[in-house]
Fold:
Amino acid sequence: MDGYDKYAFEPFAVTVDLAVFTLRAGALHVLLVERGREPYAGQWALPGGFVRPDESAESAARRELGEETGLTDVSGLHLEQLRTYSEPDRDPRMRVVSVAFAALLPDAPEAHGGSDAAQARWAPYGSVRDLAFDHGRILADARERVGAKLEYTCLATAFCPPEFTLGELQQVYEAVWGTALDRPNFRRKVLATPGFVETVPGAARLTGGRGKPAALYRAGTAAALHPPLLRPTPEGRPA
Amino acid sequence: MDGYDKYAFEPFAVTVDLAVFTLRAGALHVLLVERGREPYAGQWALPGGFVRPDESAESAARRELGEETGLTDVSGLHLEQLRTYSEPDRDPRMRVVSVAFAALLPDAPEAHGGSDAAQARWAPYGSVRDLAFDHGRILADARERVGAKLEYTCLATAFCPPEFTLGELQQVYEAVWGTALDRPNFRRKVLATPGFVETVPGAARLTGGRGKPAALYRAGTAAALHPPLLRPTPEGRPA
DNA sequence: ACAAAAGTGTTCTTGATACACCCATGG
DNA sequence: CCATGGGTGTATCAAGAACACTTTTGT
Structure:
């Protein structure tokens, strides 16, 4: 850290890349943008951009999130730093160090071009292939991280609208983990955790027309889940 | 990511900072270096340095780890990326984005000056105060991360020499978590997890002179811990 | 009447907790 | 013989898994 010279090295560019997740029709979707120029022209990539001189990576990520989704208020959305990708050859043009983030959206506005008029779309997670740069790796890391945090935090409510049913909350777990859960046990587990959800008095919603109306809940104040809600026999827990 | 110019922005410096942990006499210690020049001259800081143009942050971290500890072979040591700190004002001289790492050492060589002849020492974790820059925050984050990973990974063996006793392994948990554990239950839990440790046949070691000689174990091949080994009533699980 | 989705109850088994107790070694 | 640390056994309790069953709506 000592004996430095601002221009002693080939400059590093610092960018943010975002894995923006949402649920549509019970399936996990990711926001992708189409690249307009080389390298990887025509391929899909994660949204992202440069960190400006006067902002932190977190600020840059939230700014990009607003620009790419078209949402006017992104202040309440869950945004979480994943890790930093810094392989020297990850961008063929120059040295780019990218701080990756995962973001969770409750409802998905239709994708449109961002501020730079690039094409954007919501892609079902399972259908994503051949992303530009190392974005495939970043996306896989992001999903693994989100899945892991569902186990021991109350993060799942970040995928839900302000008022939601327990069925919808369970769909979050099932979509991210890719496994089915036992509904009675899930219900008990959630309600037994103080501060995970709180009931909306008297309210109920008809879910999909058929079936008994479900009680509505709001996100609680708790952040952690004790004891955790473990994935059924997952095998590969992140190192 | 498009429409860029290598020199369009004030250059970012990219550095790595390391929280290097070890156990000495059953207590958690951290490697610190003394700053020789402003800013924060005379204060203690985490070891670290610039990422070179041809290396990743991980490579830079491992290189610095070797330079600062004086160890000739750091290839087997556990090194893990924590997160990236990028507040615009975290270094008063210029824009420095720092990728933080946590490293775990089984045995602590005496600290000496690194390659840049800076003073270095092992400090008991509890005694560390007033680190330079945002290093106090980084150090706290590192300890929290390591503590959390002890719960659901086999990471604890990274603090131990190639052959160790279960008592030594338990000391790792107790030092990092700052709590006492029940020895019989700890023993059962470790031995019940396939691949956590494997016995060294016939070997035993006199631990501290007194007491029954303890059986020796090696680190196993498993990475994850199922089910996890949870901290006793920890309250604040990381978000 | 039936399908679909919410919600309740019950049993079984696993794992964690809190101990009491025995074993081997040095002083 | 006693202090110290390693190792075993066991009873109790909380939590998870599996599944049967009831309730309320739309068609």
In short: Chain B has two domains: 13-150, 153-219. Chain B touches chain A through 54 residues (CB under 8 Å). Residues 146 and 176 of chain B are 8 Å apart (CA to CA).
